[in-house]
Design brief:
- The protein is mostly helical.
- The protein has two domains: 341 residues, Amino acid/polyamine transporter I, CATH 1.20.1740; 73 residues, no CATH class.
- It is 78% helix and 0% strand.
- Helix 2 runs antiparallel to helix 3, helix 3 crosses helix 15 and helix 5 runs antiparallel to helix 13.
- It is globular and about 60 Å long.
Length: 425
């Protein structure tokens, strides 16, 4: 695998990750964090860069499908988990890309309906999905460089032309808020979804490559993509922080990004932002629908018909859900994320650590603890937090909506220690 192949694969990974949430979330984080922009950036990059890249590294190790991520818990659990993740993916983040594209790229130029935007958008997504053998080349060679160029123009104009004067943070816990906001990028879920897309695309292009060659390629590409994501997120958060006194405190995410573009590039902002939003959102939607179709195809004996029907269903759902505005889709996604994201994080980490520390027993104990202690956060996200507060107030980090972290870590240690004791009587 030469450097060109690594670079193209890294660009493809970056582009498949970098979608609607990745674009609109960081600027508002910086805008509200003021002088603590670096702290919120650190938290955001843990959940939106580090964990997703670990997911790609896990894929390079497994070289299978998303089913392999959870099969050590049990095959039944893994199937259930996969269906939930893919259902969430094609119902929320994929349609959100169309909604963002309409609000920021289409509506400001052509005052058309969101229905027309969604139909045209997902017809194009479908065309890419059914021609999936070309995904790596098209996304890696053409779309990602375009995204990076436009981003650098916007961030560079802000960072090099504005004084570094920051306000105070509006967050009670800046670091934790950054971590939780990173959930909304769906990137950890994206890692287990699009990582499989990359594996299959590599196999289609070069089926003779060995396990080690593919592992090396995906690993190097993953770290390069992660570095790119980190630099872009930090730049967007810093850019938002530099405009802390320019806009109203309650400005929406999409309006803030539009305003920043107007402030930095004036009359050319609408055109540049349209290109950026369209490219970033489109590549993510392609990755999600392709990953879902790949999974269903595998469940039905590599049926091409199953692949095509799933792609159609994913695109139809995208058209239907894409009619809602971005803020509504983000709000609807929160409960699902508070439950499924912690499970995804621990599965990624367990698949990355050495095999001797990740036996089936460890998988089962850690996942069980994560599921149990994620329930209070899920209930809180749907408005039932006060009803269970008296039962959950003792859980460490509960107030930060991360009550699952310490129990999962404790189960990891206990499961490994008891295994060691049993093997050394």
């Amino acid at each position: 695998m030469n450097r060109k192949t690594v670079a193209i694969t890294a660009f493809a990974l970056f582009s498949l990750f970098f979608g609607a949430g990745n674009l609109i979330l960081p600027p508002q984080l910086g805008f509200k964090s003021g002088g603590l922009w670096w702290l919120v950036a650190l938290g955001f990059c843990i959940s939106a860069v580090l964990i997703p890249i670990l997911g790609i590294l896990a894929h390079s190790k497994l070289q299978g499908t998303m089913f392999d991520f959870a099969k050590k818990v049990s095959p039944t659990f893994s199937v259930f988990y996969c269906y939930i993740v893919y259902a969430i993916s094609i119902s929320l983040p994929s349609p959100r890309t169309a909604s963002v594209t309409h609000e920021m790229a289409v509506q400001p130029i052509w005052n058309s309906s969101s229905l027309i935007t969604s139909i045209i958008y997902f017809i194009l997504v479908y065309i890419f999905v059914v021609n999936r053998s070309k995904i790596l080349d098209v996304v890696g060679k053409f779309l990602t460089p375009g995204i990076l160029i436009v981003l650098l123009l916007i961030m560079g104009a802000a960072i090099f032309n504005l004084d570094f004067n920051f306000g105070s943070s509006q967050f009670a816990n800046t670091f934790t808020h950054g971590i939780l906001e990173g959930y909304q990028t769906f990137d950890a879920i994206g890692a287990v979804v699009v990582g499989g897309v990359i594996i299959i695309s590599i196999n289609i292009k070069d089926g003779k490559a060995s396990y080690e060659e593919k592992k090396n390629l995906i690993g190097k590409a993953g770290w390069l993509a992660g570095l790119g994501l980190f630099l872009v997120y930090a730049g967007l958060i810093l850019t938002g922080a530099l405009f802390g006194d320019t806009f109203d405190a309650d400005i929406s995410r999409t309006a803030l990004l539009t305003g920043i573009s107007l402030e930095t590039w004036g009359n050319t902002a609408t055109f540049l932002l349209s290109i950026l939003v369209g490219l970033a959102c489109f590549t993510t939607a392609v990755g999600i629908v392709t990953g879902t179709a790949d999974f269903i195809k595998g469940r039905f004996n590599e049926s091409r018909t199953a692949y095509t029907l799933t792609a159609i269903i994913g695109c139809v759902l995208g058209v239907l859900m894409g009619q809602f505005n971005v803020g509504y889709i983000i709000a609807v996604a929160l409960p699902a994320l508070m439950f499924i994201y912690p499970i995804t994080i621990v599965l990624i980490i367990l698949n990355v650590v050495p095999e001797k520390w990740a036996s089936p027993k460890v998988f089962r104990w850690v996942v069980a603890a994560t599921v149990l202690f994620s329930i209070p956060d899920f209930l809180g996200s749907v408005g039932w937090g006060d009803a269970v507060a008296s039962f959950t107030s003792w859980i460490p980090l509960r107030e930060n909506h991360m009550g699952w972290v310490l129990p999962a870590l404790l189960m990891f240690l206990v499961a490994n220690l008891t295994k060691s004791n049993q093997s050394n009587p």
